[in-house]
Every structure is written in structure tokens, then in C-alpha cells.
Design goal:
Largest sheet: 5 strands, antiparallel
Order of helices and strands: EEEHEEEEHHEEHHEHEHEEEEEEEHH
CATH class: Alpha Beta
CATH superfamily: Chorismate synthase AroC
Distance between the termini: 53 Å
Structural class: alpha+beta
Length: 374
């Protein structure tokens, strides 16, 4: 239980941080999509450890192996299984953690739940598990872009107290990838890198915020009442390690406005229904309205730090713990493709679910925006 996400486009991830490998099974992908290991590898490389001086130096090639569901370069419509071998685990660095609980980790809670835990690198609770999510997200991204014209771009908008100035309506993935911190604001990116380096040298860590914009999402996605689009998106991104909050549109800033200040007025734009503003972030009543979907996801500082911390062992005795091994001083740069993957997985699942609406009308017909008749 708890290892799967989605209804019609459903994924199940598997594997532990220091096990033989990690991966995912993707079920419900339509047949005929051109798909190769290179498509998946491009996204895994963005998530891969050791890609820059400000990320964990664990050396993993994260090479994707498609084991099933693809034949002669096209999906078969059957389950797609993707495997990534673990290559640089170094489990000995975690030996002392067998008998103690690391502060703000899942060590104690996993043991409380199951009565047993994998102490090598955190096992299933490690961010290593997200390899499967990103691999599945690559499949969803290609289908969304090639067949539906839906594009998702995530970027680092804040690291600790360093905030970037980014226009979500114009930000591009090229601008995001131009910086090792994945911030499209060059001046802010330099200050972010400096702040991460300061934390690393001090044996500490910092958190931040990832912004997300989805362009081309048609109106009508979302299932009242409990499968609202924003609810499913929130669940998906909040299932990522280290997440602490999610906002849509103006988010919590909306509490400082009145209704007349916050409401998005409907207008006619180029013969179609639109909104004059987008304070709602592209979702109203839990259903997409055709505007850009705007999100922000908050990440806490990395829990494993080199600074000594007080904790207890399994017998309740007080001990001092100092994190060892290779860890990100800030999860934000590598979390960008993780967030994109989760958003794309939810959007594709809702797109496929929408085929059953409007008396079974064809998907393309369903997503024709409402035209204003003269």
C-alpha cells in the first residue's frame, strides 16, 4: 500500500536507496507513443546525484533500462517496467545508524509503523526512490507535450532568504537549466549558490521554494469532490521527500485581500472565454479553467547535516549524532525534475480520465475551448 499513484495512468515505484536497484512500473500508457531510453535518460540526468558541486557527490550513472511495454520504439499499451541499478551505495557509512534515530528522518516512524526498517541510507524513505517517479514522469511529459501540447516548467524561486524575480508566463526550461541551481534569474542564482556553499562548509543545510507553471492545460480537468485537480496535485508534490507546503495562484497571500480584490473576472479573449487575471492559479472549484496553472512548493532544509545533533538510540539513551555520507546541502536543484514529474503524472491521469466525461466524447473534442458564437 502507498507505493502507487494514479487511476488510469498509474505508476508503482519500488526499490531502496542501498538495494540492488530502483525503478517503476507504468500502467495505462496508451499504445503507439514513440518512446526510448534516451527520452527517460534526459530526465534522470537532471535528477542524478553528483551533477554539480552543490549536490550530493554520490556517483550514479542512473542509466534507464526499459524491460517491458515498448517494442520497436513504440509503447504497446501494456505495462512499462523501467529499471535503474544502484552503483555507488557505500552502505558502511550508515552502520552507526542501525542503533539510533536520526533527527527529522523517517528512522523512528518507519520502525514504529513496521517494526523493522532499512537503516542503509534510509531505505524506502530516501530520495533515491524518486528515480522511479522521474522515469515515469518522462513518459508522461512526452505524451503531454506531443499529443496534448501541455508543457510544465519548474524552477528554483527561493533558497533560504535569497528570492528570485521570475515571470512564470515567460520562464523557459532552457533558462532554468542554464544554472546549476536551476534558477532562471542569473543574479539570484549566483547568490543562491553562495548561500548553499556557505551551508555546506558549515556542515549545515538550507531549504527553499520551487515554482511551477503549466502551459496549455485545457479547461475541464478535475473531478469533484475529492479528486479536485489542485487536491491531487498537492498530494503528489507533498509525497516528495522534504516537502512542507504547496500553494496555488496567490496562495496564502490571498488572505490579505478582499473578495473583490482576489476574484478573477471572466472576459472574451480572441473569441474564447478567459480570465482577466490569474490569481486562482488556473484552477477554480478544483477544475482547470484553461489559464496557466501556477504552483509553489516549499522544501525544508536537508535533514542530514555534519553538525553534531542530540538524539537517542533504540534503547532511549541520549547520544550525539553527526551525519556522515554524501548528502545534498540543499535539495532544491535536484528536486526541480521531481516536481515536474509529479505534476505531469497527475495531469496526464486527469486528461485520460476526462475521456469518460461528456457522454464519451472524443478527448480532442472535449478539450476544445468554449467558442463565443456571434
Amino acid at each position: 500500500m502507498g507505493d502507487s499513484l494514479g487511476r488510469l495512468f498509474r505508476i508503482t515505484t519500488w526499490g531502496e536507496s542501498h538495494g540492488g536497484g530502483v525503478g517503476v512500473v507504468v500502467d495505462g500508457c496508451p499504445a503507439g507513443l514513440e518512446l526510448s531510453e534516451a527520452d527517460i535518460q534526459a530526465e534522470l540526468d537532471r535528477r542524478r546525484p553528483g551533477q554539480s558541486p552543490i549536490t550530493t557527490q554520490r556517483k550514479e550513472s542512473d542509466a534507464a533500462h526499459i524491460l517491458s511495454g515498448v517494442f520497436e520504439g513504440r509503447t504497446l499499451g501494456t505495462a512499462i517496467s523501467i529499471l535503474v541499478w544502484n552503483e555507488d551505495a557505500r552502505s558502511e557509512a550508515y552502520a552507526e545508524m542501525k542503533e539510533l534515530y536520526r533527527p527529522s528522518h523517517a528512522d523512528y516512524t518507519y520502525e514504529a509503523k513496521y517494526g523493522v526498517r532499512n537503516w542503509q541510507g534510509g531505505g524506502r524513505s530516501s530520495a533515491r526512490e524518486t528515480v522511479g517517479r522521474v522515469a515515469a514522469g518522462a513518459v508522461a511529459r512526452k505524451l503531454l507535450q506531443s499529443r496534448f501540447g501541455v508543457v510544465t516548467v519548474a524552477y528554483v524561486s527561493r533558497v533560504h532568504e535569497v528570492a528570485a524575480q521570475v515571470d512564470p508566463s515567460t520562464v523557459t526550461q532552457e533558462a532554468v537549466e542554464a544554472s546549476m541551481v536551476r534558477c532562471p534569474d542569473p543574479a539570484a542564482a549566483e547568490r543562491m549558490i553562495e548561500r548553499i556553499e556557505q551551508a555546506r562548509k558549515a556542515g549545515d543545510s538550507v531549504g527553499g521554494v520551487i515554482g511551477v507553471v503549466v502551459r496549455g492545460c485545457p479547461p475541464g480537468l478535475g473531478e469533484p469532490v475529492f479528486d479536485k485537480l489542485n487536491a491531487d496535485l498537492a498530494k503528489a508534490v507533498m509525497s516528495l521527500p522534504a516537502t512542507r507546503g504547496v500553494e496555488f495562484g496567490l496562495g496564502f497571500e490571498a488572505v490579505r485581500l478582499t473578495g473583490s480584490q482576489h476574484n478573477d473576472a471572466f472576459i472574451a479573449r480572441e473569441g474564447r472565454i478567459a480570465t482577466a487575471t490569474n490569481r486562482s492559479g488556473g484552477i477554480q472549484g478544483g477544475i482547470s479553467n484553461g489559464e496557466d496553472i501556477l504552483m509553489r512548493v516549499a522544501f525544508k532544509p536537508t535533514a542530514t547535516i555534519a553538525t553534531p545533533q542530540e538524539t537517542v538510540d533504540r534503547e532511549g539513551r541520549a547520544v550525539t549524532f553527526r551525519g556522515r555520507g554524501r548528502h545534498d546541502p540543499c535539495v532544491l536543484p535536484r528536486a526541480v525534475p521531481m516536481v515536474e514529474a509529479m505534476v505531469n503524472l497527475v495531469l496526464l491521469d486527469h486528461l485520460l480520465r476526462a475521456t469518460t466525461r461528456r457522454d464519451g466524447a472524443h478527448l480532442n473534442a472535449f478539450f476544445e475551448p468554449r467558442i463565443i458564437r456571434p
